[in-house]
Amino acid sequence: MTEKIETLDELASRLSEDPSEIRTVSDLVDSLVYLGNTDKVYARHDDHLGLKTDLSSAFLGTPIDQIDALEFEEDVNRVLEQANIIIPLSERHLSADDLEEIAEDQARLGLRE
Asked: 63 — phi, psi (to 5°)?
């Protein structure tokens, strides 16, 4: 089982082989949403779709290494909540039912015949 992600720094490390590439919270959220949009995750979870619009612009524009967890507590919690759903889903093994659901979603969206 995946350990719970407690900080934005931990999340950056989980999302990128080179966490220094993820400079701002906006970069971090974009990477998380990108992972959340993969078929493996999206088949089970889509609550991340509005995440970026729910976060304050001040929070999104802040460099990760300058985040004041108390000042942005609500925003940090929203990101970590999604991360702790998305990361385990992205690491799981797909069952036959999962593959069928993914194929159905792709067909519904016109991505597969």
From this structure: -60, 140
